[in-house]
Amino acid sequence: MLSQATVRGSLNLVDGFTSAGTVALNLTRVEGRLLLRDGTFTSPQPDGGRPAIEAISASAAGGMDLGWREATPSVDFTNATTTFLADDPATRPERFGISGLTYDRFELPQGSAPRPVWDQAARRAWLGRQASFDSGTYEQAARVFRQHGYVTEAEQILIAQRRRAREVSRSAADWPRRAGSALFALVGYGFRPLRVVWLLAALLILVAVSLAIPAGHASLRASNGNGQVYSTSGLVSPAGAGPRAPEATDSCGDGQVRCFSPVLYAVDTVVPLISLDQRSTWYPDPHGRDGEFMLWWLNIATMLGWLLSSILVLSLARVARAT
What we know:
With 323 residues, this protein is α/β, with parallel strands linked by helices. It folds into two domains: 6-189; 193-310, no CATH class. 36% of the residues lie in helices and 16% in strands. It has helices at residues 120-127, 135-147, 151-168, 175-185, 193-212, 214-217, 262-270, 291-322, and strands spanning 6-7, 11-12, 18-19, 23-24, 29-30, 34-35, 40-42, 53-54, 59-60, 64-66, 70-72, 74-76, 81-82, 84-87, 95-97, 105-107, 220-223, 229-231, 234-237, 283-284. The protein has a five-stranded parallel β-sheet with strand order 2-6-10-14-16, with no helix packed on it. A four-stranded parallel β-sheet has the order 1-5-9-13, with no helix packed on it. β18 and β19 form a beta hairpin. α2 (135-147) packs antiparallel against α3 (151-168). It starts with 5 loop residues before the first strand and ends with a helix. Residues 239-248 have low confidence and may be disordered.
């Protein structure tokens, strides 16, 4: 029916139109609007046969009003092109094909009850019911939302795209990519860089607190150029002498070594590409009490800092491209 045809005006299948077979509009060019309002479309093969409406590579210059009453079991608008897309979430079929469908904006079907047009939750549900996953459909919807000023809503759609991609990629051989994706999900797949900042701040606080408590800073040692070893409370071993109890001085060794600061040490440990000479001066003594634990903890904190900082840079780059 009308496949590869050209309709000079609008194509109206509305107001009680009933079809007991597939409405084929493949490669049809409608110079006006494609109106399917209040129609009933049913495929004679409801168990996996042809869709009720098949409009592959069709175009409607005046927009598509898909406010049908019923379309069973599916519709196919693969590679269709239009200006506006109007549909009703309550009458969407269980599955449909919209890969390659392009449009400029969303509208409400004619005569429908008032409701939000730019409802990203409804759009995410719509995209999630495709016959097969296609990331391009999410990109198309997000682009339209962003072009009309709904930047946050567009980000939610792209986050749903990443989440859906994780769900369809569950093979055992793909576990490294899925593990990385799961970690990236913690920061909204790069669309929530502020979360990374908070995680970095929390890691900084944890490291600083672990170094501020007596058990933490007591495990640290520093050496000067003369071979003398200092703790944060004073000289531990003079050059050429055996170990002895720390002298009551200060964390600077009376000026012999760089002064110890838990906060600066935490920054030096967690934030990459910043050197405050704290980590290079003070080191955990693995032979002392709690020294082995502090050595592992600080090394782990360094690796987490590199990881979170890398994610932050990627997130900021993604946000910059999106804007």
